[in-house]
């Protein structure tokens, strides 16, 4: 259970430093992980980014202090990391639905977010099918975009990217040129120029040869891979499998993430079919 303990250590670190400016890199180091992969793991497990968790917790504590003390609102704003009372009021209203002044008068209900505690829930009703394989380094070609992890903007932007590449013929072209071991169009999550705050997402294909015009190339390092079967219509089947992997499989597997890009593999079929087949490739060590 070292994997669970490391994540809990990072959460405890966040809680101990809620009123300070701390970097995602320092948080991730508590879990012995890179900023990119800790942020991604945290988001998959909790459906929110690290920044969103800390914002919710700060505004929860601010609301509690507001209702228990006579502290001035301007002082609370500065204490909980806001440059102006106006910025604090805007964030407070967005979370709680009322202004700090109204909350002090007990007008309206407040939304409280408790401190996170990571627990492992053992499940056996839905088996996970996977196999383990090793591969030398290989090349993928495709197009990439950078997506911010702030406010889960990547969850909005990546589906739009898929809509675009499906409509403009990019996916069809990638499917035609695929000539490697992996058959299908790939979604590749990779570390970008701003680790922990943004990701590079590729729509690509494994390809051996000179890079075709209009595409860029990414080298995938040699690694041991755990390949999970995904069955069901997109995007729900893929999203549910990611959550199952990180909440059920990783905590008890004995593996750690290898820190290189992850792959989603999409077969050439109707993605809306109940039995649509796809895969998730996770590099491990």
Automatic annotation (TrEMBL):
<dbReference type="InterPro" id="IPR018062">
    <property type="entry name" value="HTH_AraC-typ_CS"/>
</dbReference>
<dbReference type="InterPro" id="IPR011256">
    <property type="entry name" value="Reg_factor_effector_dom_sf"/>
</dbReference>
<dbReference type="InterPro" id="IPR018060">
    <property type="entry name" value="HTH_AraC"/>
</dbReference>
<dbReference type="InterPro" id="IPR029441">
    <property type="entry name" value="Cass2"/>
</dbReference>
<dbReference type="InterPro" id="IPR009057">
    <property type="entry name" value="Homeodomain-like_sf"/>
</dbReference>
<dbReference type="GO" id="GO:0003700">
    <property type="term" value="F:DNA-binding transcription factor activity"/>
</dbReference>
<dbReference type="GO" id="GO:0043565">
    <property type="term" value="F:sequence-specific DNA binding"/>
</dbReference>
<dbReference type="InterPro" id="IPR050959">
    <property type="entry name" value="MarA-like"/>
</dbReference>
<feature type="domain" description="HTH araC/xylS-type">
    <location>
        <begin position="8"/>
        <end position="106"/>
    </location>
</feature>
<dbReference type="InterPro" id="IPR010499">
    <property type="entry name" value="AraC_E-bd"/>
</dbReference>
<keyword id="KW-0804">Transcription</keyword>
<protein>
    <submittedName>
        <fullName>AraC family transcriptional regulator</fullName>
    </submittedName>
</protein>
<dbReference type="Pfam" id="PF14526">
    <property type="entry name" value="Cass2"/>
</dbReference>
<dbReference type="Pfam" id="PF12833">
    <property type="entry name" value="HTH_18"/>
</dbReference>
<dbReference type="InterPro" id="IPR020449">
    <property type="entry name" value="Tscrpt_reg_AraC-type_HTH"/>
</dbReference>
<keyword id="KW-0238">DNA-binding</keyword>
<keyword id="KW-0805">Transcription regulation</keyword>
């Amino acid at each position: 259970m070292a994997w669970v303990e490391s994540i809990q250590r990072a959460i405890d670190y966040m809680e101990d430093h809620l009123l300070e400016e701390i970097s995602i890199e320092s948080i991730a180091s508590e879990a012995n992980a890179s900023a990119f992969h800790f942020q991604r793991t945290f988001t998959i497990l909790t459906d929110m980014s690290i920044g969103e968790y800390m914002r919710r917790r700060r505004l929860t504590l601010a609301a509690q202090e507001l209702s228990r003390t006579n502290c001035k609102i301007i002082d609370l704003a500065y204490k909980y990391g806001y440059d102006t009372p106006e910025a604090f009021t805007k964030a407070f209203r967005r979370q709680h639905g009322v202004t700090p002044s109204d909350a002090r008068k007990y007008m309206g209900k407040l939304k409280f977010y408790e401190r996170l505690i990571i627990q492992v829930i053992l499940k056996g009703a839905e088996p996970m099918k996977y196999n383990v394989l090793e591969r030398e380094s290989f090349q993928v070609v495709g197009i990439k975009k950078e997506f911010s992890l702030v406010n889960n903007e990547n969850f909005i932007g990546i589906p739009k990217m898929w809509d675009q590449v499906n409509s403009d013929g990019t996916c069809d072209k990638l499917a035609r040129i695929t000539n490697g071991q992996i058959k299908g169009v790939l979604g590749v999550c990779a570390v970008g120029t701003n680790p922990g705050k943004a990701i590079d997402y590729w729509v690509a294909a494994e390809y051996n040869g000179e890079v075709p015009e209009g595409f860029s190339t990414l080298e995938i390092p040699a690694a041991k891979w755990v390949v999970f079967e995904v069955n069901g219509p997109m995007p729900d089947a893929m999203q549910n499998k990611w959550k199952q992997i990180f909440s059920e499989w990783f905590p008890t597997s004995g593996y750690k993430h290898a820190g290189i890009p992850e792959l989603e593999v999409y077969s050439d079929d109707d993605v809306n079919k109940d039995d649509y087949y796809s895969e998730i490739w996770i590099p491990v060590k």
